[in-house]
Amino acid sequence: DVKVTQSSRYLVKRTGEKVFLECVQDMDHENMFWYRQDPGLGLRLIYFSYDVKMKEKGDIPEGYSVSREKKERFSLILESASTNQTSMYLCASSSGDRRGYTFGSGTRLTVV
Amino acid sequence: KNQVEQSPQSLIILEGKNCTLQCNYTVSPFSNLRWYKQDTGRGPVSLTIMTFSENTKSNGRYTATLDADTKQSSLHITASQLSDSASYICVVSASGAGSYQLTFGKGTKLSVIP
Fold first, then answer.
1. Chain B residues inside the 8 Å CB shell of A104
2. Less crowded by CB within 10 Å, the N or C end of chain A?
């Protein structure tokens, strides 16, 4: 089974800090995604990548950036964390045919 | 605009009872539909995936149905257990080049009580 690993389950950061959320997948998937999930809003796509060094904006990219230097790793960066970025962050990866679509366990980020 | 609507928003049932969750979608062109189970504070875990030609898929006590003509899907849970308490999310994928994104429903929160 594909394993998608997010480096932290819980994070607490201060307003203005630069925050890195790391995601690693072990199945050589081309596509990787970052979502945030908030009550009543469901999952919203922040950024995705379909190849190394490639990135595409999702629905809510403002305040975020991403990095994909290696195929298996996709990082989400909060350049200057704000309290409205307190959320559950979910990473996912998928194969080229998009049938295998697997989520990580999530990172609960709190910005104080 | 592609949309996925789930109902009900929340549901409480007694342990051992059956229940059915609904999903209506307007995603086009349709590629596949997935149901995920998400425990509180964890990432979603896939239960089933169905393509256009499949109208039923089972995974243990979970059975998903798909009617591609009416663009409706349901997830039926048989003989519910306390561990079934979770949010269930319906996700639809469009076909075509560049269709990397999925359209998510907002989920149905199921509570199974003793």
1. 43
2. N
Q: Considering Cα of B8, then B37, then A43, then B67, what sign does the dihedral take?
A: negative
Counting as low any pLDDT under 70, the low residues of chain B are 96-101
To the nearest whole Å, the CA of A80 is away from the closest chain B CA by 24
Q: Under a CB-based contact definition with an 8 Å cutoff, are residues B100 and A96 in contact?
A: no
Token duo for residue A112: 């104080």
Burial A77-91 (b: 16+ CB within 10 A, else e): ebeebeeebbbbbbb
Residue B66: Cβ within 10 Å count: 24
- Per the CB < 8 A criterion, the answer to whether B103 and B3 are in contact is yes
pLDDT value for A99: 65
Closest approach of A104 to chain B, Cα-based (Å): 6
C-beta of residue A110 within 8 angstroms of C-beta of residue A11: yes
Q: Tell me what pLDDT residue B113 has.
A: 97
The number of C-alpha atoms within 13 Å of A84 and in the hemisphere containing its C-beta is 4
Percent of chain B with pLDDT over 90: 79
Pairwise CB contact (< 8 Å): A42 & B99: no
- The residues, ordered by sequence, that sit 6+ positions from B21 with a Cβ below 8 Å of its Cβ are B6, B7, B8, B11, B74, B75, B76, B77, B88, B90, B108, B110
Q: Parallel, antiparallel, or unpaired: how do β-strands B108-113 and B10-14 relate? A: parallel
Is A101 close to B100, i.e. CB distance below 8 A? no
